[in-house]
Design a protein that fits this description.
0% of the residues lie in helices and 50% in strands. The chain is built from no helices and eleven strands.
Length: 126
């Protein structure tokens, strides 16, 4: 069983930055591609970005490209989401997810992942 625990959310002013972390409790973290999703109040869950098992290949939603960066540390079994130039429309609950993928393959943009974290709230004030 894979457990994912997000941290790093909070309240930030527009233009500010936050770094989210997602720690995994799994023997073989490097066997999983990882994704970040977000869900704002009253809206459907939205793809934010994803990273391949080795961390070399990444994909981002157009809405965050150039502002958000995904990275991972397989030794620490953790994936990160660095969020810069935050805007009020970025306010949401952010969740990480794990998907068993082949090496080098970026997990998809649809929420067909194997495991999910509980999420962490990010609130951006104007």
């Amino acid at each position: 069983q894979v457990q994912l625990v997000e941290s790093g959310g909070g309240l930030v002013q527009a233009g500010g930055s936050l770094r989210l972390s997602c720690a995994a409790s799994v023997p073989s973290f490097s066997a999983y591609g990882m994704g970040w999703f977000r869900q704002a109040a009253g809206k459907e869950r939205e793809f934010v970005g994803a990273i391949s098992r080795g961390g070399l290949n990444k994909d981002y939603a157009d809405s965050v490209k150039g502002r958000f960066t995904i990275s991972r540390d397989n030794g620490k079994k953790t994936v990160y989401l660095q969020m810069n130039s935050l805007q009020p429309e970025d306010t949401a609950v952010y969740s990480c997810a794990a998907a068993q993928t082949s090496y080098g393959v970026i997990p998809g943009r649809s929420p067909n992942y194997d495991y999910w974290g509980q999420g962490t709230q990010v609130t951006v004030s104007s």
